[in-house]
Amino acid sequence: YLRIVDKSGFSVEAQEDLDTVIRKAERLKELISQFYDFTRVTASEYTVPMERIELTKILREALMDAYMELSAGSLEVNVTIPDTMVTVMANENALQRVFQNLLQNAARYAKSSLEVLLEEVPGGVTVCFANDVTDSNAIDVSRLFERFYTQDPARTGGSTGLGLTIAKEFVEKMGGSIEAQLEGKLLCIRIRLPEK
Question: Which of 13, 38, 55, 96 has the most crowded CB, counting CB atoms within 10 A?
Fold first, then answer.
């Protein structure tokens, strides 16, 4: 309803106010979605239906969807994805959400660059999201996947601190693993998914 309001008769100030209300409503919608996903995926009875899916396609689509967000931060993005089709046993919706959350995290916290690398390894596949960080001392890698943890509580950038927690829960529900490593000023979040 906010989007279809005719702003043509509004003053410049009223138009700016309406734009602010729309942004706040979008943010509230995102928060509700994050809390819903968190509640659902952490429930003990929640299961993720698995099927063989094309991982390369889902990752490419996630990167295209995140293009505007990554561009807004003027990030230099390097992507290494095999030309051949890579498939895994997983859940397409869950993987889409995992990739979306990891890309949003990079867009929010990366200093200037992001590297995405998909590799086939013995027994499975790994996907690494590596970005440089401004202050490596402000990041507690051991807590990155804790709910409500944000790198800098004073500057959350609109973060709920649930994105990486939800990603971890989805990955583990699919039989995979996720870990974070900080090497100097490079933060790498690596997902491993089994072939079967």
Answer: 55
